């Protein structure tokens, strides 16, 4: 592991390891912390107990509590904007150095920054799916419906702590009214892969294909704790492709890394984009 160093020095080392590209990039919550979205597993992150799919579909009270928290968290997440790390990767893609981004985040900030090929491995917070009829609707439209059902609820909550999946910590959600599918009356769920669900096979295959078509892999802001992201690093390592990791703290794939930088993402990625002339 290489400890924190100047962004320019870190970028020079990454440029040496990653080569001319194209580079497949794997990102996690750590790339979005500079946009004001908290990390899941960073060194300073509080303990979190993510919701499971079974809890969501099996317990109406739990589901009500979740949608109340999500209704508050949605307004916060909607207002977030890409940071320098996101825009650096978009510039590198435009310059031909990056082939695409495999993101474990659901915040859509890569797309907003201008990245064209983004595989949203765990879904997107801005979409909702009906578990009965399969229709997908925009989260903004659902926000309007929830506001009508629960006037001034979001505005009445102060000192909100929001998680990376738009979940907010609230003391009480009694009385919150949940919206069902307006087409069939079925259960609505954020278009996000929860614990207990599998990442859709087509997304996994697309991500593997991206790694196969790339000459190296860059991990930015992920502890790679869950297999859904770590498997692509292992896949690259088995092909003897260089792997570079930029993350605060240890990751579950440090042993597969050609170089590991213990650093934040934004400044290093901006310097890396400059190193590629992007």
Q: What is the fold-level CATH name, i.e. the topology of the largest domain?
A: Rossmann fold
**Count the strands?**
11
End-to-end CA span: 27 Å
How many domains is the backbone divided into? 2
Helix percent band: 25-40%
Order of helices and strands: HEHHHEHEEEHEEEHEHEEH
Helix and strand composition category: alpha/beta
Tell me about this structure:
The chain has helices at 7-18, 53-58, 60-78, 84-94, 109-113, 139-149, 201-212, 227-238, 266-275; strands at 23-27, 98-103, 118-120, 123-130, 136-138, 161-162, 168-169, 188-192, 216-220, 243-246, 259-261. It folds into 2 domains: 1-37 and 82-122 and 198-278, Rossmann fold (3-Layer(aba) Sandwich); 47-79 and 124-192, SIR2/SIRT2 'Small Domain' (2-Layer Sandwich), CATH 3.30.1600. The chain is an alpha/beta fold. The strands form 3 sheets. The chain has a 6-stranded parallel beta sheet with strand order 3-2-1-9-10-11, with helices on both faces. It has a 3-stranded antiparallel beta sheet with strand order 5-4-8. Strands 6-7 form a two-stranded antiparallel sheet.
């Amino acid at each position: 592991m290489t400890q924190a160093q100047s962004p320019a020095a870190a970028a020079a080392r990454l440029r040496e390891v990653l080569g001319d590209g194209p580079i497949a990039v794997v990102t996690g919550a750590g790339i979005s912390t500079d946009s004001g979205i908290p990390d899941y597993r960073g060194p300073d992150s509080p303990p979190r107990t993510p919701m499971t799919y079974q809890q969501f579909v099996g317990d109406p009270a739990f589901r009500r509590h979740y949608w109340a928290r999500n209704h508050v968290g949605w307004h916060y997440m909607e207002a977030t904007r890409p940071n320098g790390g996101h825009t650096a990767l978009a510039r590198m893609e435009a310059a031909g150095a990056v082939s695409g981004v495999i993101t474990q985040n659901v915040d859509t900030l890569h797309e907003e920054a201008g990245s064209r090929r983004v595989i949203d491995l765990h879904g997107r917070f801005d979409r909702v799916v009906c578990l009965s009829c399969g229709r997908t609707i925009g989260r903004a439209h659902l926000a309007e419906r929830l506001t009508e059902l629960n006037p001034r609820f979001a505005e009445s909550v102060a000192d909100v702590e929001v998680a990376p999946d738009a979940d907010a910590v609230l003391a009480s959600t009694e009385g919150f009214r949940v919206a069902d599918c307006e087409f069939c009356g079925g259960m609505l769920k954020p278009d996000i892969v929860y614990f207990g669900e599998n990442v859709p096979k087509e997304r996994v295959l697309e991500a593997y294909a991206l790694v196969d078509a790339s000459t190296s892999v860059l991990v930015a802001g992920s502890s790679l704790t869950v297999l859904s992201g770590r498997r692509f690093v292992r896949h690259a390592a088995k092909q003897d492709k260089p792997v570079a990791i930029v993350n605060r703290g240890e990751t579950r794939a440090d042993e597969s890394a050609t170089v590991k930088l213990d650093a934040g993402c934004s400044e290093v990625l901006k310097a890396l984009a400059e190193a590629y002339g992007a």
